[in-house]
Amino acid sequence: PPADLDCDVLVLGGGPGGYSAAFRSADLGRRTIIVERHATLGGVCLNVGCIPSKALLHVTAAMQEAQTLAHAGIAFAAPTIDLDRLRAHKAAVVGKLTDGLAGMAKGRKVEVVRGVGRFIDAHALEVALHGGGRRVIRFAQAIIAAGSQAARLPFLPDDPRIVDSTGALALPQIPGRMLVIGGGIIGLEMATVYSALGARITVVELGGELMPGADRDLVKVWEKKNGKRFERILLNTGVSAANAQASGIEVTFSSGEKGEKVEKAEFDLVLVAVGRTPNGKLIGAESAGVNVDARGFIAVDAALRTNIPHIFAIGDVVGQPMLAHKAVHEAHVAAAVAAGGKDAFDPLQIPGVAYTDPEIAWTGKTETQCRAEGIAYGKAVFPWAASGRAIANGRDEGFTKLLFDEKTHRLIGGGIVGTHAGDIIGEICLAIEMGADASDIGRTIHPHPTLGESIGLAAEVFEGVCTDLP
Ligand code: FAD
Q: Does residue 322 have its Cβ closer than 6 Å to ligand 1?
């Protein structure tokens, strides 16, 4: 058998958390190894998450925008869709980024061992190598970045027409009727893609609201725009059974207090987007003495240490929000602390974005949170119906909302609904982290006419400054 490998820092998992931790560790002079079971680095985000979904959302948004230009005197024929080329485009986008990561690992002399890793004790991991065989890696410290996978509904039959987000991103077909189970960000982003490609979409959500986590006023704007675009949106409704028939998947919905209201409908494709399960139980953590909770999450302190002080954990496997940017920032802290530095993961805000149409972005405190936590806050809203740029874009249905501490007028949260909301929320993130108050933001000269200036204008609204710059 091949000789044991030896390193300072072993990183388990090559997603955004894992590669960021490994690259930072190597930059800090540590001998670093990443163990990744898949052929490429990048994890869920690059391979089957953030990036391929945005490649598809960009294409479908452009398609739809082109169709809305008729009123401006520019008409296009109905689009023709070549699914093979669309898939190839998406694969090329992903490939460019994963190739880049491979180059960055090489440049830093980070060794990537391909295979499935399991801890065998607190200083060793055994890898079932991709090409067969096993190899033991001994480490001084480890960073667990094993990520998460799509949660399953165990009663659904095994059928190629029932897919998770990975299956949906593979674009197996353009279904006539598609069911999206789960009204969260991932479900609604995929619903946006498939509806633009021509599928008639039903969304079913067990809870009473879509996009939980975001304030209702933001989501309402999305609902108004998409109410007609989607065939049906069923809230407070569960899927209780599904049967694979030759003609489609027959799904049973149940609603009502005791699930007594039952309805059946048939779909050509069913996407299950009911959340994600952490991979903590699949890595032999117990052999290293690392505690994993019943759901598969690994608890960490602010320095990202597990209960075993030389083993850290980051990213989706440590908890919500399961987002790539959270994983990356945790990674940098874990790598710094492992190298002997002093650091902590203690952000004032972590943004969330639904890249739907329109986009919904929020960060810091939401109004719902402020009310629940009894925080005295003031609010300012700038409606995009008063934004010159939004009107010029033909998309003035959005708004920008800022939440301030009532006493200090410091920014504590914000939300934006509208096109490109995800691209402009970054300023709110920075303002919260820098302790900016309403006057700082309102007096900052923003470029005109932009969607981003709605942030400065909302702050002016809060300050009671009358503005005549739409
Ligand atoms: P992962 O990316 O899950 O990586 C973990 C890696 O570890 C995987 O490559 C896995 O193969 C490997 N691994 C696990 N166990 C082992 C083992 N035992 N041996 C070897 N290798 C192992 N987030 C955003 O911020 N923005 C978005 O727009 C966004 N869009 C998304 C869209 C979809 C459809 C999905 C599913 C997710 C999306 N996310 C998005 C979430 C984002 O992908 C995750 O938060 C992020 O990938 C988490 O990074 P991670 O490093 O913790 O784990």
A: yes
